[in-house]
Design brief:
The protein has about 250 residues and is of the alpha+beta class. It is built from three helices and 13 strands, in the order αββββββββαβββαββ. The chain has helices at about 1-25, 140-145, 205-215, and strands spanning about 40-45, 55, 65-70, 70-75, 90-95, 100-105, 115-120, 135, 180-185, 190-195, 195-200, 230-235, 240-250. The protein is globular.
């Protein structure tokens, strides 16, 4: 009888431990960063080809945008002197997108600065004057290297000059370490994510959005944010940049 009671007791303990182990398993809060339904994604850059990419208002890739080690690289060292002033932004011109989830991985050097733009429409204006931008910047060293002060709306993950990231949620990677970023855009809500954490959300074209546009940096740029579909664009801010796994899913 004692053996039976002891066996029941051990079995109960083991079952209890098994249940506890289940509860202790981490719950995936960011499913799309480990997305299993790959067929839903369009790969804008897969590490092997720059097909679909060209200069903004151009026909070919500008000097400096190359593939190295399977990464889309902006190499500032191989440009000619005439092309060293920035402004050679590139667009994925194979297709326009309206509502989407965009995912990419990127790294930047100390003091580096760039951006990912969307709803880009070409014309007699630089893309940043009309297109929302997810800021990519070296928050940790930029001020020291550039001897200047950053506003919150200039920091990594910001909706540039419009909405600021929640610094309490931000995981800032040092220069030359890989980051993962996401933009989720719908007319009901826009979200910016960095390294698995949501940094901000807002409603595009809302009263709050219009107020920020009319009172901030974009008050003299009437076309800013007015296009509701367009190209994906990567900024040349005269800073080296490395990107990989750029993909988009239509929503």
């Amino acid at each position: 009888m004692k053996h039976i009671i002891l066996a029941l007791f051990v079995t109960t303990i083991l079952l209890s431990c098994k249940d506890d182990k289940k509860t202790d398993q981490p719950v995936e809060q960011n499913i799309t960063e480990t997305e299993v339904n790959e067929e839903e994604w369009i790969h804008l850059f897969d590490g092997t080809s720059t097909e679909g990419w060209r200069a903004y208002n151009g026909e070919t890739l500008p000097q400096g945008w190359v593939i190295k080690n399977g990464e889309l690289t902006f190499d500032t060292e191989i440009r000619t002197e005439a092309n060293r002033q920035g402004g050679k932004d590139i667009v994925y011109a194979a297709e326009e997108f309206d509502n989407f989830e965009l995912y990419w991985e990127w790294k930047i050097p100390e003091g580096g600065n760039s951006g990912m733009m969307y709803h880009v429409n070409e014309g007699e204006w630089p893309p940043y004057e009309v297109s929302p931008e997810y800021q990519m910047l070296d928050d940790l060293k930029w001020e020291e290297i550039n001897n200047d002060t950053l506003a919150d709306w200039q920091k990594t993950g910001a909706d540039y000059a419009m909405y600021v990231p929640d610094e309490s949620q931000k995981i800032v990677k040092p220069a030359m370490e890989w980051n993962t970023s996401r933009i989720i855009f719908t007319p009901e809500k826009v979200e910016h994510w960095l390294n698995g954490k949501k940094l901000l959300e807002f409603v595009p074209w809302s009263e709050d959005w219009e107020t920020r546009k009319k009172t901030g940096k974009w008050k003299d740029y009437p076309k800013y944010g007015t296009f509701k579909s367009g190209y994906i664009s990567i900024q040349d801010h005269d800073s080296p940049l490395w990107l990989r796994n750029i993909k988009i899913k239509k929503l």
